[in-house]
């Protein structure tokens, strides 16, 4: 029986265009979704957009477009990005979806209320629109939010609160016992500090007179549900909580919840490791198994920001290199850069220079060159289907790299997984050199064919490992090998294709 694997990403605000930080997170999760599919797991992979709240409303106003139209237009861009980057999500949730999402948010609210965890209170606080959250004086520098560089709004209002404080001990227990595993340790430590201080109750609604754009509080339309309470519910609304009979054995909710892995950026840890588990506990639902918080991407050493003018638009980046080949391979090149260059648990940087360097060194010279050394040379002298046998040394080498690769992928060390694959490529390159393959074609055709067979096996394994990382590249390699990834008793029929990853001059 196959295991289920439910994986989610954060859902993006649609206040602007997607940038490479958004792209990174979706690519990161896609590797794991594809890897688990390859191992035979029954995968459900969710991503989507977060469309309510003050931030989206303000951006729509600034653009002079009605908010519903504005969020739809931008949500479409995020959807399009997922397609362009070959993200293999099974569903794309939008929080404006009144059929699937809203009923779940309403149900969650009622359940929290019934548990006695919602109460009304007069409140005065500083609301940071960038955070979509109340902040405290210690989050400010010179009166401005240290992260968003804007002064928060002073808000005085009566609204509903969620009794998060009550769940501090239970959350602490879940985290320390690893029922809810927080990766990496830096995020775990950050959370433990928060828990040590004790969690505070959270404002869970805003008066509708100030914010109408959102889900009305059930039974009290004078209040709108807080955007984070609404957004976090996407992880269960998308699989049917509240909209299908979640009691039935066949429902996706019963099949897939709890999530096996939730991927988020480190900046939204508190919402996912404190508020979300608190809500789930109050509702009597299981906690996700693992929460993975990735690092942040800067561009040219600076935080990505419109005012700095360093926003890299993934669509433009792909367009810029269109002359190098089909856009799906450029998308793979982008996937490669982000996965190889940004260590998943730390921050990383993007520059065009570094992108081109990596492309030329690893994709044009490393991978592309190896493919052509094997396929072009082989196809010249061998026509039709052929098989053969690998030497013990080749078998051992491939087995060793698979073991490293699996360990690295399963511990989220994607840069190291790719290094292991490139190790196998250089092993193959050495094989070509030491055998002087190009001479053997004439001098010893029998040995030539058996060597080419072994090289094809090496390349097929490289392509198999690249499947989750560079899906289109992997397919194209299999096309040129005339083989299927599922094969183990390899047979090949070489077909020289377009040069993969021509050099950037
Ligand atoms: O936080 N590098 O939306 P968002 C890496 N709607 N990751 C980055 C990044 C960067 N430069 N910039 C953003 C939200 N991200 C909420 C989430 S989930 C129920 C609601 C990541 O559009 C960020 O960490 O600000 C987050 O995980 C995701 O992109 C969406 O960010």
Summary, kept brief:
With 505 residues, the protein is of the alpha/beta class.
SSE arrangement:
Layout: E1 4-9, E2 12-13, H1 20-38, E3 42-50, H2 53-63, H3 67-84, E4 91-94, H4 101-114, E5 118-128, E6 133-135, E7 140-141, E8 144-145, E9 153-162, H5 168-176, E10 181-183, H6 185-197, E11 202-203, E12 205-207, E13 216-217, E14 220-225, H7 227-232, H8 234-237, H9 252-256, E15 261-265, H10 269-282, E16 290-294, E17 297-299, E18 302-303, H11 314-320, H12 327-341, E19 348-350, H13 352-381, H14 392-410, H15 414-435, H16 437-443, H17 445-466, H18 471-481
Parallel strand pairs: 1-3, 1-15, 2-3, 3-4, 10-16, 15-16, 17-19
Antiparallel strand pairs: 5-6, 5-9, 7-8, 9-11, 12-14, 13-14, 17-18
The structure holds ligand ME8.
Are any ligands bound, and if so which? ligand ME8
Percentage of residues in strands: 15-25%
Provide the CATH superfamily of the domain at 352-481: Isoleucyl-tRNA Synthetase, Domain 1
The rounded Rg comes to 26 Å
CATH class of the domain at 352-481, anyone? Mainly Alpha
Q: What characteristic shape results from the CA principal axes?
A: elongated
Tally of alpha and pi helices: 18
Overall residue-averaged pLDDT value? 95
Main beta-sheet strand count, sense and barrel state: 7 strands, parallel
CATH topology of the domain at 352-481: Isoleucyl-tRNA Synthetase, Domain 1
Helix amount: 40-55%
Distance, first to last CA: 51 Å
Number of strands: 19
Weakly predicted, low-confidence segments = none
Question: How would you classify the helix and strand content by structural class?
Answer: alpha/beta
CATH architecture of the domain at 352-481: Orthogonal Bundle
